[in-house]
Amino acid sequence: MAEVPNDTRPEFISDYLQKTLRLKPDRWTKFIASEDNKKIIQEFLDKDYPDLIVITQNAAGQLGIALAFPIGSKSKSVYFMKKSRGAVPRDKIKQALVFGDMSPVPLDQLCILIDEVPFICGFLDGVRVLIPLLSNKGNLETWPQPIRDDICNQIQELKGTNRRVTGQTKGRAVLPLPLETEEIDAAERIAQTESVFPSFSLDGGEMGKIHRFVSRFHFPSDDALADKI
């Protein structure tokens, strides 16, 4: 008879909570000692429902669990969501779950969503696309170039607006960054990890984007703007 592997799934949740919430081990011990909390965790891991759990730490340092995203929470939350219904495999925990943190400030969370999740622009065979949503070549075959460019421009405007509004709520002036800085950062990471050094060349279109970006600083005239670039 095959030996049943040790169940490390609750430990995986505990380890992630301790890292992201800087949680003391005894906090998790007290949390899981509650039969109600333990039952919810076990049902999440072994059954179809619930398919989402959200764990929050209050001001007193105590953990609470919910089956939906909190509304009006004043503290950071951590969520674990199944990619598909059913039990979470004991040997493929990370692959079966989507997990992460949620800021109690909606604007900050929106910044994270826009900057990191679906709206990252990059290059695929020389064509700027959305990654990962449009990283599949098959998704781009019927898309005209103007539409591809327009989508990335709209996303850049959304990111810039969100950054400015977030900065205003915190009493800071935040300037939108041009899209090309993200591509340069990505190239730098590739160079550091793979010892490959991509080359860049600025054509008329790229120079036009830089010109429009600099113009947001409201120089008094085109001549003054030309002197600055």
How would you describe this protein?
The protein has 229 residues and is α+β, with helices and mostly antiparallel strands. The protein folds into two domains: 9-104, no CATH class; 111-198, no CATH class. Helices cover 47% and strands 14% of the residues. The protein has helices at 9-20, 25-33, 35-46, 93-96, 106-116, 145-169, 180-194, 204-215, 222-228; strands at residues 52-57, 63-66, 77-82, 97-102, 120-124, 127-131. The strands form two sheets. The protein has a four-stranded antiparallel beta sheet with strand order 2-1-3-4. A two-stranded antiparallel ribbon has the order 5-6. A hairpin with a 5-residue loop joins β1 and β2 (63-66). α5 runs antiparallel to α6. The longest helix is centred in the C-terminal third of the chain and has 25 residues, at 145-169. The radius of gyration is 23 Å and the shape is globular.
Condensed summary:
This protein is α+β, with helices and mostly antiparallel strands and 229 residues long. Helix content is 47%, strand content 14%. The chain has a four-stranded antiparallel sheet. Strands 5-6 form a two-stranded antiparallel sheet.
SSE map:
Layout: H1 9-20, H2 25-33, H3 35-46, E1 52-57, E2 63-66, E3 77-82, H4 93-96, E4 97-102, H5 106-116, E5 120-124, E6 127-131, H6 145-169, H7 180-194, H8 204-215, H9 222-228
Antiparallel strand pairs: 1-2, 1-3, 3-4, 5-6
Helix pairs in contact: 5-6
